[in-house]
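[recover] target loaded
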């Protein structure tokens, strides 16, 4: 789905769309265009009695800028959210909802999420549940949010047992992003956040590998179109599957590639690995599983290394993790239960039988039951002596 430019004589923004089932979500973006974006967004808030701005606590300056840009049209209540996995809970959602209502949020309000994927999920849960549903608008400020997390109706928070085990589906009304916001993220986070685009290339659109590698090489050059390329890869890869499977329970489960081992490694690292980085390592594990089962050849496994190495996910420098903890967490993956008989001896995984081609079960779900012992072997192969 290729973006089209708006009238560049008046504002340097572009528009594209993506469909979640029958609902079409507009995505408006540009570079160094915050004022233009906020003016356009404010024009759409006619009749709204309040904007509930849920923002990353470290994005206070941008939150104030957003609030000022919208407040001429509608009152804004700003609530800070600390973006830490251990705080991505229902308790945080309830605390924000209590504060929101005390501050004047009503059924006539709109929730605006400003931050990365974690803040977007927490704000999404507030929007989906407060007054049984308020409109949700995303303003993503990290690469993983802008190019992946906001392209979804999934909203969720964690349990002690694992990631995203409590949640619902709530389609955003719109997405707005000044790509310049993403430059405020440190270089390591930019690279590891791009791992979700590497996932899309390996699992869905392998023909976009050169685009991805060109974009990664250009991330340090503010004059390059690197961020636009990454956004386009995200939309182009996810849009077809999300159009037919907006709840991501069949075809769109392919976007869980790398997440089974990745989520376990992320939780076991206790914050040392970002989500994107962990998914990158999870894809290396999935590739090893695929090779051991005879589905992936050496060239496909090498492609994983080639795409992920520029993002800092290099097989020769694995993270030091508690291997036993990773193994225990694997058994709590939130895809467990999709396949009948998924006991402790089996781990449901998204696997590839070639680049851009996922193995599927009889129901069309890209899930394969893998012996737990084999997954442990693949983990050992990837993590080495770490």
């Amino acid at each position: 789905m290729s973006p089209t430019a708006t009238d560049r004589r008046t504002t340097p923004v572009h528009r594209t769309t993506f469909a979640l089932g029958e609902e079409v979500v507009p995505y408006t973006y540009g570079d160094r265009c915050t004022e233009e974006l906020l003016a356009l967004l404010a024009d759409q808030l006619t009749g709204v009695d309040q904007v509930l701005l849920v923002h990353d606590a470290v994005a206070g300056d941008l939150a104030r800028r957003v609030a000022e840009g919208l407040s001429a049209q509608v009152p804004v209540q700003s609530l800070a959210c600390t973006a830490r996995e251990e705080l991505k809970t229902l308790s945080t959602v309830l605390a924000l909802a209590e504060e929101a209502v005390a501050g004047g949020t009503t059924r006539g309000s709109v929730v605006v999420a400003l931050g990365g994927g974690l803040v977007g999920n927490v704000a999404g849960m507030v929007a989906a549940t407060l007054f049984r549903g308020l409109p949700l608008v995303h303003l993503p400020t990290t690469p993983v949010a802008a190019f992946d997390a906001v392209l979804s109706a999934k909203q969720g928070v964690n349990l002690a047992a694992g990631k995203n085990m409590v949640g619902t589906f709530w389609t955003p009304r719109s997405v707005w992003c000044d790509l310049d916001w993403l430059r405020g993220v440190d270089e390591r986070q930019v690279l590891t956040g791009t791992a979700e685009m590497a996932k899309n290339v390996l699992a869905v659109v392998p023909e976009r590998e050169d685009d991805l590698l060109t974009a990664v090489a250009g991330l340090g050059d503010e004059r390059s179109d690197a961020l636009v390329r990454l956004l386009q890869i995200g939309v182009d890869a996810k849009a077809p599957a999300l159009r037919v499977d907006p709840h991501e329970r069949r075809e769109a489960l392919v976007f869980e590639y790398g997440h089974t081992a990745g989520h376990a490694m992320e939780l076991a690292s206790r914050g040392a690995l970002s989500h994107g980085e962990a998914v990158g390592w999870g894809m290396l594990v999935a590739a090893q599983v695929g090779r051991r089962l005879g589905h992936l050849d050496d060239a496909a496994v090498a492609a994983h290394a080639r795409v992920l190495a520029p993002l800092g996910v290099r097989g020769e420098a694995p993270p030091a993790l508690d291997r036993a903890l990773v193994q225990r967490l694997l058994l709590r993956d939130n895809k467990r239960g999709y396949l009948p008989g998924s006991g402790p001896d089996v781990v449901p995984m998204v696997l590839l039988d070639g680049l851009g081609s996922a193995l599927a079960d009889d129901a069309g779900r890209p899930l394969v039951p893998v012996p737990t012992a084999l997954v442990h072997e693949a983990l050992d192969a990837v993590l080495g002596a770490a």
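[recover] notes: Residues 1-9 have pLDDT under 50 and may be disordered.
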